[in-house]
Prior knowledge:
InterPro entries: WD40/YVTN_repeat-like_dom_sf (IPR015943), WD40_rpt (IPR001680). By secondary structure, this protein is mostly beta strands.
Amino acid sequence: DRTVKIWDASSGTCLHTLDAGRALSSLSFESTGTFLHTEAGTIAIPPFQVSSSTGIAASKLQYQNVSLSPDSIWIVRAGRNVLWIPSEYRPSCLAVSGALVGMGVGSGRVWCCQMNTRE
């Protein structure tokens, strides 16, 4: 359903639902627990709030630094499309680490780019 749910493992309570806007296959918490690393970029985790039993309002995720648009057409920085990716270079898999983006293309090619994160 393109969401990330944060659960309290001891009580089974859903603490937060985040709208990822895309399917994610790789997730890991940063050591302080305030960021979630995904293959599409790093997400700042908002303060936890216990969800009501009547429904969960999903928060739209804000990727930090550089990420890939949900349709894989743009490299995005600070919520703005900054680099259009031609169809022959669009990724079948990718990894983002800070401002470095690495993409695997269906043809077997791999390409990387380092984005300037200064304004």
